[in-house]
Amino acid sequence: MIDRYTASGSVEGQYQPGSKGKVLLNKLGITEPDAMDEVELDLLYQLYDVVFETVDVDQPITVADITEWHRKWLANVYAWAGHERSVNMSKGDFHFAAAQQIPFLLKELDNKYLSRYTPCHLMDDELLIEAIAVIHVEFILIHPFREGNGRLARLLANVMAVQAGKPELDFTSWDAKKERYFLAIQAGMGCNYKPMRQFVSQALHDALNVDLS
């Protein structure tokens, strides 16, 4: 979980003593990755309940909303929950947005993308897929928080889908094709959202075709 990304600088780059560099410095003193995974997942389930109880179908989603979701989710675990990261992060040779650029990029996410594509109420499938793909890519490229960006991006995608009257997305295909998914994210650097639209379309198709028998 924690070692998917490398980071440099500040307290956000520090690891819990005794964790052998595998668990980020946390308020709970957790040193085992599996234990941290379990805590974060349980808190994420709780966050889903809160978000879906409070977000209206015709409510625009803002960066402030997403930041508050992050705070509610991880505030009892990490001191930096709900705060923009101050460390630079990369995955392999790919670098996410530089930390000093995050405030500007989040403002752009708000004004250029979220204000355009949310709320998703009454959107048809084609526009919904476009909206989720663009916002998902832009959010992941920014990677505004030290931890939890991917899971928060999926929550955001699910909120958008539900606003449009659809079920929560089925991300099975994303997990099965992680390398292709990440290439789809990288394609967004050149404003090419087609690969991500294909992933979103598949996730929506799979959600709509769940066998409930």
Written account of the structure:
By secondary structure, the protein is mostly helical. Helices cover 53% and strands 4% of the residues. The protein is built from eight helices and three strands, in the order βααββαααααα. The chain has helices spanning 33-54, 63-74, 102-117, 125-142, 149-163, 172-176, 178-187, 194-208; strands spanning 6-8, 88-91, 94-95. It has a three-stranded antiparallel β-sheet with strand order 1-2-3, with no helix packed on it.
Report a brief summary of the structure.
The chain has helices spanning 33-54, 63-74, 102-117, 125-142, 149-163, 172-176, 178-187, 194-208, and strands spanning 6-8, 88-91, 94-95. With 213 residues, the protein is mainly alpha-helical.
Helix-and-strand structural type: mainly alpha
Number of helices: 8
For the record, give the distance between the C-alpha atoms at the N and C termini, rounded to a whole number. Answer: 34 Å
Q: State which percent range the strand residues make up.
A: under 5%
CATH homology superfamily name: Fido-like domain
Largest sheet: 3 strands, antiparallel
Helical percent range?
40-55%
CATH topology heading = Fic-like fold
| CATH architecture field | Orthogonal Bundle
Q: Taking strands numbered 1, 2, ... along the chain, how are they ordered across the largest sheet? A: 1-2-3
Quaternary assembly? single chain
Average the pLDDT over all residues and give the rounded result. 94
Specify the CATH class.
Mainly Alpha
Overall outline = globular
Q: Rg to the nearest angstrom?
A: 17 Å
Q: How many structural domains in the coordinates? A: 1
Counting DSSP E segments of at least 2 residues, the number of strands comes to 3
Uncertain segments of ≥5 residues (pLDDT<50)?
A: 1-5
Order of helices and strands: EHHEEHHHHHH
